[in-house]
Structure formats: C-alpha cells, structure tokens
C-alpha cells in the first residue's frame, strides 16, 4: 500500500467507530460516572481493540520489509490493553491495592519494550542478527528493573515510602517522553517514506500518551475524576485517525540528509542504554546487586553492539576493497587470452621507470607479432584464430621471465612484454627463447615459411632515468617492423639502442 494515497472503506469505518466510543466516554463523564467504574473501562478497552484493528490493517497492507515494525506498535497497544484488562479484573473482583493492581502497573510499563525496540532498531535487512538480540536484551533489562522497582516501591512492597510512588511516576514520565522524542527523531532521520509514516504515527501516539499519562498518574494520587477516562483514550483515537488519513504533504516532501540519517540511527541505541543506566541507579536503592548488575550489563551490551557493527563495517570494507581489486583486474585483463590488456602497458612502464630511475636501471620492451595471422584466419577461420592467440598468450605468460615482467595483449595478433631491470642483451636472450617456444607449439600454418605458426619480435631498451614509455614503445615497434621486413620468425633490436646481433631460429 502506498502511504501517500488516500484511504477509504475500513479505515473510515474504524474512525467513526472509535469516535463514537470516545463520545460514549465523554457522555459517561458528563453523567458523572466514576472513571474507575466498569462501564468507562469497558469503553476504553473497546477503543484499544479498534486501535489494534487499525494497526493490524496497516500491517497487512505495508510492503514486506516494512510490515514487521507495525507489529511492534501493535504489541505496545496490546500491552496497554492488558493493563486495562487487569485493572478491569481488579475492579470486578474488588481487589484494588492488591498484587493484581501492582501487576496492572507493571503491564502499563511493559508497553515500552516494543517501543524501545522499534526506536533502537535500524531495521536494516543487512544488519547482523546479533545486533537485534542486543537491542532486544536492553528493553528486557528495563522491564526486569521496572518490575523490581514497582513491586519494591508500591504500597505493600518492602521499600514502600510516602515518596516511592512519585519515584515510579517520575520514571514512567521520563520513559514516556523519551520514547515520544526518540520516535520523532527517527521520523526526521528516516529516508524511507513508509518508515517515516510509521514513526510519524508512533510519535503522535506516544506523544499524546505521554502527556495523558503524566496528568493521569498525578491526578490518580488524589482520586480519578470522570474526565480522566476520556483523556487516556485520546492517544488511541489519534492513532486511528492518523492511520485513516493520507500522509501529510510536508511529511511526504521531507527528505533528510544522509548524515542526519546516520546520526539519528547511531544515537537511538545510546539513549536506550542511558535509560537502562538511570533506571538501574534507582533500583540499586532497593536492590543494589541487581541495579549494579543491570548497569554493568547495559554498558557491556552497548559496547558489544558497537563492536559487532564495527566488525561488520570492516568486513564490508574489506569485501569492497577485494571487489574493487577484482574489478580492476577484470578491467585490466584481455577477455580472450586472460593476460593483461593494452590499458595496463603504459601504467606499468611508468611504474618501472619511476622505480628504476634512482638506480640507473634499464627497462626493455619486446613487441611480438604473430606472422601472417590474417592469412591464418582466412584459411582456418576466426575461431581457430582465437584458439591460436590464446595458446600463444599462454606460452608468453608462462615462459620464465625476469621478476616483475608483464605480458600484454597489445591488440589483434600483437603482444608486448615489459622486462624491468633488463639490459638489451638479456632481452634478446628472452626473445630468442620465446621464438623457439612458439614454434614448438607446432600449430600448422600453410602460409608460413616453416609450415608452423611463428612470431616476429622487436626489442628496445632505455635507461629509466633518460627515456619515457611512449618513446620505448615506438622504438620496439620500429624494431618489430625491421624483424618482419627481414623475413619474420626473428627478433630485431631498435637501431638506436646499443648494437646487438639479431637472433633467428629459421
């Protein structure tokens, strides 16, 4: 479902239904019905049920990657419904002020577990599962601390004092408003429109709920007037209305910067850990070992979360570097023969010249051309020609060469070999062996003087401190032309280089 589209049908009916229930609450309040009586509580629970229907409807219509986060909001509403149901049960059996009442207070606070989880999580499908477990562990620790605080400080508890209930209320208010603020930050720091709409709905619900709970909890200390039942239902009514309407234009047009998205995503778990620490400090007043254990655990879990994410980023960075290296290798490779392509020649020569210049070393270059290759292609076909070039490239690449040499397919049937730190005499010896190695392939060639496929080689050499790659290539190319003009199946040296006898294996 597109969250930007208009809505009709079921959402509208749900809206009218929840408004009718709210008006019923208002009518009961005007009639002076006690907010703690059964009838207002039944109406309030009905409002919560309608809200659950609205949230589940949105869950069914959202795309698969986004849908699960709506279940977290449904879980928060469900926890509040359990709180209301527990209060209703306490009213029906006349057990206010008992264990059941304290349990209701616990359920009223447990709604924060799914809320904390939906705020802390980035919902990145590539995020490690261990991070999700850490994000879930922190709200569970908060729940354990809250239960301990409630059962210790509520009337009848071992640490109950005149101010203990206010301590619980203050903690509840801090948690409620923190959740609302963080949901708003997640809304502003989310690039996905579907997620942004979700956090918008969560912000409206949590914000109104935080304000209503702050008033409700303090008024409750002196007895609940009838209008408080209407007040605590407002957050649920607002959520249903939000889900029944299209996304506001401002929210639809808003686009957060990438840096803001990263900052908010990283900041949310910090707030969760700080919440655990603050609650642990309060609990340590009643149960010191538990409070300190929870505080230490929260620090360790947050450090573990950071370590897992950092390790994942390092793995991704290494994978990206490896992928980049492979891509560079593929870009620099000739697809037919598998050896380096022409684009690798100049950079390699430049590197050799730069390394050899301080030491006065010499770089040699062999230019190799397959003799009468066009006639070979015309006589035996292009597929046979490709096989021929591949076999020649294999011989050149696997022949013993000086260290750091590079064999390149220069183009067509022409190859080049860079011989670093190699004087002209040694280059000629290498060329002579290559002439013999190619002929030993015994590839039949009817237009060759020997009856077998042969190559011609031009050799050139320069001092790294005096020459340049382009002039070296031109010199080797001139030498290759001399070898072909002199009868092929031979190597010739660049005439500008020191004289070296020609080699001929014919």
UniProtKB/TrEMBL annotation:
Signal sequence range: none
EC number: 2.7.7.65
Pfam hit, one: GGDEF
Region annotation (Disordered) ranges: 487-506
Catalytic activity: 2 GTP = 3',3'-c-di-GMP + 2 diphosphate
Transmembrane segments: 39-57, 69-93, 99-120, 132-153, 165-185, 197-216, 228-248, 260-282, 288-308
Family matches, as PROSITE patterns: GGDEF
UniProt keyword annotations, A-Z: Membrane, Transmembrane, Transmembrane helix
Gene3D superfamilies hit by this protein: 3.30.70.270
SMART domains from the UniProt entry: GGDEF (SM00267)
Annotated ranges, domain GGDEF: 361-496
Top-level taxon of origin: Bacteria
UniProt name for this protein: diguanylate cyclase
Species the sequence originates in: Dyella koreensis
Record lineage: Bacteria, Pseudomonadati, Pseudomonadota, Gammaproteobacteria, Lysobacterales
């Amino acid at each position: 479902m597109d969250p930007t589209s208009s809505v009709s049908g079921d959402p509208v009916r749900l809206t009218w239904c929840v408004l009718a229930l709210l008006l019923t609450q208002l009518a009961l309040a005007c009639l002076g019905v006690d907010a703690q009586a059964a009838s207002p509580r039944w109406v309030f629970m009905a409002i919560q049920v309608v809200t659950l229907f609205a949230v589940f409807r949105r869950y069914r219509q959202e795309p698969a990657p986004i849908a699960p986060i709506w279940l977290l909001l449904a879980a928060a509403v469900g926890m509040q419904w359990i709180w209301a149901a527990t209060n209703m049960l306490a009213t029906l059996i006349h057990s206010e002020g008992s264990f059941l009442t304290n349990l209701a207070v616990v359920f009223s606070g447990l709604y924060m577990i799914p809320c904390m989880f939906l705020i802390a999580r980035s919902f990145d499908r590539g995020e490690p599962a261990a991070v999700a477990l850490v994000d879930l562990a922190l709200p569970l620790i908060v729940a354990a601390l809250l239960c301990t605080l409630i059962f210790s400080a509520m009337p009848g508890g071992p640490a109950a004092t005149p101010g203990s209930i206010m301590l619980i209320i203050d903690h509840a208010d801090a948690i409620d408003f923190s959740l609302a603020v963080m949901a708003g930050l997640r809304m502003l720091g989310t690039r996905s429109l579907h997620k942004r709409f979700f956090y918008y709905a969560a912000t409206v619900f949590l914000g109104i709920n935080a304000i209503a709970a702050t008033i409700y909890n303090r008024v409750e200390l002196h007895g609940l007037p009838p209008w408080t039942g209407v007040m605590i239902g407002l957050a649920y009514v607002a959520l249903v209305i939000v889900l029944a309407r299209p996304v506001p234009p401002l929210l639809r047009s808003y686009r957060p910067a990438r840096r803001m998205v990263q900052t908010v995503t990283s900041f949310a778990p910090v707030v969760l850990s700080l919440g655990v620490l603050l609650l642990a400090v309060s609990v340590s007043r009643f149960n010191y070992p538990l409070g300190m254990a929870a505080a230490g655990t929260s620090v360790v879990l947050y450090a573990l979360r950071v370590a897992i994410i950092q390790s994942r980023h390092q793995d991704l960075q290494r994978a990206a570097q490896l992928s980049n290296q492979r891509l560079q290798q593929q870009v620099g490779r000739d697809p037919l023969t598998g050896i380096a392509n022409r684009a690798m020649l100049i950079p390699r020569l430049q590197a050799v010249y730069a390394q050899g210049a301080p030491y006065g070393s010499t770089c040699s270059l062999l230019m190799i051309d397959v003799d009468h290759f066009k006639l070979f292609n015309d006589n035996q076909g292009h597929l046979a020609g490709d096989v021929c070039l591949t076999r020649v490239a294999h011989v050149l690449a696997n022949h013993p060469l000086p260290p750091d040499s590079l064999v390149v397919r220069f183009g067509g049937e022409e190859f080049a070999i860079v011989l670093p730190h190699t004087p002209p005499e040694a280059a000629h010896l290498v060329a002579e062996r290559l002439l013999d190695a190619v002929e030993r392939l015994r590839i039949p060639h009817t237009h060759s003087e020997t009856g077998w496929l042969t190559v011609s080689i031009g050799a050139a050499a320069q001092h790294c401190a005096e020459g340049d790659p382009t002039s070296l290539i031109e010199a080797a190319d001139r030498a290759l032309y001399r070898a072909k003009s002199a009868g092929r199946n031979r190597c010739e040296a660049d005439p500008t280089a020191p004289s070296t006898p020609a080699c001929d294996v014919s």
